[in-house]
Amino acid sequence: MKYAFLIFFMNLLPQYAGKSLRRDDGYPKTFEDIKNEIAGYTDIAKAIIDLAVHGKAQNRSYERLAVFADSIGPRLSGSKNLDAAIKYMFSALQEDGLENVHLEPVKIPHWERGEEFAMMLEPRNHSIAILGLGSSVATPPEGITAEVIVVASFEELHKRAQEAKGKIVVYNEPFINYGETVRYRSQGAVEAAKVGAVASLIRSIASFSIHSPHTGWQNYQPGVPRIPTACISVEDAEMMSRMSFRGTKIVVHLKMGAKTYPDSPSFNTVAEIVGSKYPEQIVLVSGHLDSWDVGQGAMDDGGGAFISWEALSLIKDLGLRPKRTLRLVLWTAEEQGGIGAEQYYQLHKENISNFDIVMESDEGTFKPSGLGFTGNAKARDIVKEIMTLLQPINVTDVYDDADGTDIDYWMRDGVPGASLRDDLSKYFWFHHSQGDTMTVQDPNQMNLCAAVWTVVSYVIADMEEMLPR
Asked: What share of the chain is helix, strand, coil (3-state, %, to 5)?
């Protein structure tokens, strides 16, 4: 009997050559099958591109963002402006005819910079442009007047620890890249306090400057004194470095009125196009609605939020309904460390097996080049194939690793993730500064970004099978 079964099984092998058995005795698609399935979306991809780049939706994401940014302005965590922005978007998404538009409550930090200024008193009077860093404490009401010590690194600070006591530490660290250099902003106050400094001023984390300070979040550590901290312009940091190198004594007066309030109620803003076949399965597209309290938050991250909204609008305009639910989430309090996103993750992680991919655009919406992707090799191959649908606009590259504070929680637990990759050559000129305004944005580039975001999210949401993990 066993030989008869063996002969029967061997007779089946040619029929299923190259295929592997599923646990449920079904037969999965080969990669060739998947390529053919993706190729079947060529016409839909072309329709999305035509609508976004050339058709009636041309410049729509830019124009929507301009009205929003000009009307609301900057949107700091805990501020009335952020509250107004969330109410604005809740109404706008409803008016756009999207489904399940709702707000999910969270608690977020509430810090305000208050009045702040810095003045060099020696060797001459000079007004120093500053922006206090998020979560910084205030100076005493009368301010702090102290001699300055200028260092180029944490290593130099520690070597000169005895000199730093009672002084204001000025960091003149060179900009290498954001990921490497930002530690001076986030840890500068702590390291200065450890050697007895009374305040720290950090050269802005910027690749270019026109006397423009760039703010951002910083972190204190338990057991380390909390000292006031702010960013200064590249020009002032370099000037004080030159003065110090010559042996010139530098004295600065610093006054900061920063204050931290109890956490504030806020919301992640959600809208959907409900899936036609697997509505419980989710393809998530996102950007963050909050910003810093300078500029307009148009680039960081108005552009990312609005191309994510545009993805759902384009799909709706074309009368498409993917098999899976396409969910838009506009995060709150990303700038403080993904606070709204972390609470969203805690609320929804019990359904993690139903999240197909999480996508976030938070590095500008300049000329796109492709996607950053985090996932296994099989999923990467599928995404690479999907990107070939964007050949008409020459945006086909897939890079290692998706970036996104708000989607990291999901990616760490194995959910595939994607982030928009675009031309970052000028991004850090404007990042977290007064320069982050609509003037930075380009409608044609936003059209291309919206087309990329829409094609990728729609195809993944509509394919018969979820991305492998």
From this structure: 40, 25, 35
Gap between the terminal Cα atoms of the chain = 40
466: tokens are 């979820």
Q: Which residues are within 8 A (CB) of 108 and not within 5 positions of it... i.e. 6 or more apart?
A: 77, 78, 263, 264, 265, 266, 290, 332, 333, 336, 339, 340
**Contacts from 53-60 at CB under 8 Å and sequence distance 24+?**
53/393, 53/447, 53/448, 53/451, 56/317, 57/310, 57/313, 57/314, 57/317, 57/450, 58/443, 58/447, 59/443, 59/444, 59/446, 59/447, 60/310, 60/313
Q: How many CB atoms lie within 10 A of CB 241?
A: 18
Residue 322 half-sphere exposure toward CB, CA atoms < 13 A:
31
116, 173, 310, 334: the catalytic one is 334
Contact 172, 203 (CB under 8 A): yes
Q: What is the pLDDT along the chain (469 residues), one digit of tens a residue?
A: 433 433 333 343 333 333 332 333 456 789 999 999 999 999 999 999 999 999 999 999 999 999 999 999 999 999 999 999 999 999 999 999 999 999 999 999 999 999 999 999 999 999 999 999 999 999 999 999 999 999 999 999 999 999 999 999 999 999 999 999 999 999 999 999 999 999 999 999 999 999 999 999 999 999 999 999 999 999 999 999 999 999 999 999 999 999 999 999 999 999 999 999 999 999 999 999 999 999 999 999 999 999 999 999 999 999 999 999 999 999 999 999 999 999 999 999 999 999 999 999 999 999 999 999 999 999 999 999 999 999 999 999 999 999 999 999 999 999 999 999 999 999 999 999 999 999 999 999 999 999 999 999 999 999 999 999 9
> H or E segment at 268?
strand 259-273
Are 189 and 221 in contact by the 8 Å Cβ rule? The answer is: no
Residue 360 annotated as catalytic: no
pTM of the model: 0.93
Segment holding 230, helix H or strand E: strand 229-232
What is the maximum span of the chain, computed from C-alpha positions, in angstroms? 101
